[in-house]
Amino acid sequence: MTDTLHQLAASGDATLHLGASSATSEHRGLIISLFAAFVIATLFITVWAGRQTKDAADFYAGGRQFTGFQNGLAISGDYMSAASFLGIAGAIALYGYDGFLYSIGFLVAWLVALLLVAEPLRNSGRFTMGDVLAYRMRQRPVRTAAGTSTIVVSIFYLLAQMAGAGVLVSLLLGITSDGGKIAIVALVGVLMILYVTIGGMKGTTWVQMVKAVLLIAGTLLITFLVLWKFDFNVSQLLGTAAERSGRGAQFLEPGLKYGVDGMTKLDFLSLGIALVLGTAGLPHILIRFYTVPTAQAARKSVNWAIGIIGAFYLMTIALGFGAAALVGPEEIKASNPAGNTAAPLLALHVGGVDSAGGAILLAVISAVAFATILAVVAGLTLASSSSFAHDIYANVIRKGQADEKEEVRAARWATVFIGVVSIALGAMARDLNVAGLVALAFAVAASANLPTILYSLFWKRFTTRGALWSIYGGLTASVTLVLFSPVVSGKASSMFPDADFAWFPLSNPGIISIPLGFLLGWLGSLLSKDEPDTGKYAELEVKSLTGIGAH
Amino acid sequence: MATDAPPPRAGTDAGAVQPTTEAFVEVQQSAQFGELRRTYRSFAFPLTVGFTVWYLLYVLLSNYAGGFMGTKVFGNVNVALVFGLAQFATTFLIAWLYSRHAAAKLDPKAEAIRSRMAAESRMEAGA
C-alpha cells in the first residue's frame, strides 16, 4: 500500500520534473542576463579598486582600511561557498537532519578564529599566514613550508569550486556538451584572474561583499516564502518534509547519511573535528584579517561573520526542509542525485511552477549561486598568489631583496599562472566527483596550519624543526590518507570509480592527521638541536597581545 | 610625479613604531604584561576547551544516541533539533562573552602597555 502510494507520488513528480526542466531552459535568457549584470557590475568595481591600488599593502591587504562590518560581510562572502549554499540545502532536502548537523561544524569553527587566531594574527603579521609562522624561525625553510601548505590548501579548494561551477551551470542552463562545460570553467577562471590582478584585495573584498548581500537577500526571500506557505509554523514544515521524504520521523533524526554503520559514524566524527579546527587555518580566511586597521576591528569582523554565517545556516534549515516538503525527493534526485539543485528547484516551486514568478525566482537564485562561486574563487586565488609572491618569491627566492613593486608584479603573474593551471585542472576534472576536495582542504588546514599557528603564538619552546614537522607532517598525512581513501578510488562515488587502491576506510583523514600534526610539532621542537629564539618570541608575544608595531 | 628623494611615508606599512628586541623582552617579563597574558589565556583557553567538548558531545550524541535525540519535545520538534539550535545559541553567546571580556579587560591593558612602549622607544630614539 505504502509502496503504491510512493510510486504514484514518484510518477507525479516525474511529470513535474519535466515541467521544471523546460522552465529552466525557457528562462535561460533571464538567468544569463542577471548573471551578466553581476559580472559587469563587479568588473566596474574591480577597475575602480584597481585605480586605488598603489602599493603592496593595497594589493595584499586592501590598504587595511575596511571597517569591521565590511570585513565581516566579505569574510561571509569568502566562506559561504556554493558547497554551503547548494550542498547543505541539498543535503537537508535528501537526508534531513544530517544535512543540518553538517552545517553546524562550519559555524562553531569561527570561535577558534575569534578566541585564538584573528587578533594575534592581525597584530603580528603583515600579508600572509607565513608572516606569523616564520616570525620566530629561520625564514627560508618555514616560509617555503607555509607557502607550500597555503598553495596546496587553496588549489584543492579552488579545484572543487571550479569543477562545481561546470556542473552547476550545466544543470541550471541545460548545457551538457563538453565544450560548453569547459567554456564555463574557462569563463570563471578568466574572471577570477581579472578580479585579482586588476583589483587586488580591494576589488576582491568588494566582490565578496556584494555577493554576501545578494546571497543573504536571496536566501531571506526564499525562506520567507517557504515559511509563509506553512503559516510560519515550523513544526508543520518539519512534519510535511518528513512525510514527503518517505522516511517519516527518521528524517528529523540524526543517522540517515552519517549513521549508516560504524565506519560512517567515525567518518563524520573525523569530518566534524576537521571542520571546527580547519576554518581558522584556511589561508584565504586568514589574510582577510589584514584588511582592517586594528585587532579590535578584526574581532568585530569575526563577530559580524559569526552573525551573518549563523543566520545563513539557520535559513538553510528552512530551505532544505522546504525543498523536501514542497519539491519532494524524487524531483530533486532526478535533477541531480547529490541534491545540489534543491535550492534553485525550491525557488521555482515557491514562486509557482510555469509562472513568471517561479521563473524569476529560479533565475535570481541561480545567478546568486554563480556569484557565490566567483567571489570564493577570487579569494582563493588571491591567497595563493599572495603567498607565492610574499613568502616564496620575495623571501625565499630573492632572500628579502625584492622591492614592493617587484613583489606585487610577481603576485600578479602568479595569479595568471594559478588561474591558467586551475582552468586546465578544472576542465580535466569536470566529470570527476571532486566535492571531497573541500573536506580535504579543511583537513589539511586543521592538520598542518592550525597546529603551527597555535604553537607559534602560544608556545615559547616551539622551534623551526617543530614548525617544519607539523606543516609537512600534517600536510603529507592528510593528503596521503585521502589519496588512499574512498574519495579517490574504490567506490561508485569516487573520483576514479574504475580504479581501486583504497586501503584507508575513512573519507576524512582529520581524526588521524590532526593529532599527528600537533604531535609532530611538539616532537620536532623537543628533538631540535637549536634553542628557540627567545628574543623573537618576546617580540611576537608582546606584539600579538598588544598590537605595538603592528603593520 | 617623480621626486628626487621620496620622503618616508608616514602612516603606511613601514611607518609604525618598532621598539628594540631588548625592550620587547623587558616588557614580556614585566608584571603588567604577565597580567595581560593571564587575563587573556585564563578566559580564552578554558572557553575553547568548553565549546570544543560541547560540540564533540553533540556529534557523539548524534552518532551514538539516536533514540535519545529522536525524543519529541513538542510537535515535530525533537531533542536533536533543540540541541542543534543550542549549538547556534552557545556560539553567539560565547562570541558575545569574549568580546565583552576583551573590551572591558584586555583592550585597556593592551593600550596601557602599547602607549608606554611607544613613549619609551620615542625617548630612546631621541625624538
TrEMBL record, chain A:
Protein origin, superkingdom: Bacteria
Transmembrane is among the record's keywords: yes
Record InterPro entries: Na/Glc_symporter_sf, Na/solute_symporter, Sodium:Solute_Symporter
CDD domains per the UniProt record, alphabetical: SLC5sbd_u4
Pfam families in UniProt: SSF
Similarity section: Belongs to the sodium:solute symporter (SSF) (TC 2.A.21) family.
Protein name: Cation acetate symporter
Organism: Streptomyces chengmaiensis
